[in-house]
Automatic annotation (TrEMBL):
Residues 6-119 form the Response regulatory domain. This is KDP operon transcriptional regulatory protein KdpE. The modification 4-aspartylphosphate is found at D55. GO terms for cellular component: cytosol; protein-DNA complex. It comes from Coprobacillus cateniformis. Its main location: cytoplasm.
Amino acid sequence: MNKTSTILVVEDDSAVRNLISTTLQAHNYKYLLASNGETAILEASSHNPDIILLDLGLPDIDGIEIIKKVRSWSNMPIIVISARSEDSDKIEALDVGADDYLTKPFSVEELLARLRVTLRRLSYIENTNVHSSTFLNGGLKIDYSAGCAYLNDEELHLTPIEYKLLCVLSKNMGKVLTHTYITHEIWGSSWESDVASLRVFMATLRKKIEKEPSSPQYIQTHVGVGYRMLKVE
């Protein structure tokens, strides 16, 4: 995946839309523009962009509904760019299928960094055999078929929950996963007690895979929202 990737910018504020499009053009990205939800859905379905940058507060269709519609037929990455800054707003967008969430006002540098992360994730997926039973990320290796994980060629002694948690994160590398999503994958439910348990298991897992658990290399915490596995170069 390179910078010939096409980005669909969905934003009704002309000043913000122009800022984003100018930034993309300056960094050699192709882009499409939509100022409302109806146009966004049309552009997404007809041009199949690599990434959607989506404002939630559109004049005709709420951005949450757009995410749901796109997810009904495509897994193209969606990065939300919104003035809605409450954790509940972020969680709702991520739970219905957004890949990342950037709060306004944002810096151009952060926007470009989020794009690079998403494009690296796409590139990794494209270059990985979808039928492969082995996951590699830095010194971390997971043999899905054998149910084993290794760090720097030494087998990790993980509990069943820790191993399942590691697999969920690895299969969504680069994507922010909410507490609700993860607990549903692990326990099939999302009670408050499940979220508390998740934090405990995440802490024990980090002690086993992170050289410095307080400065994690593999698993990033999004406070109040969830976790993301980072791509380790």
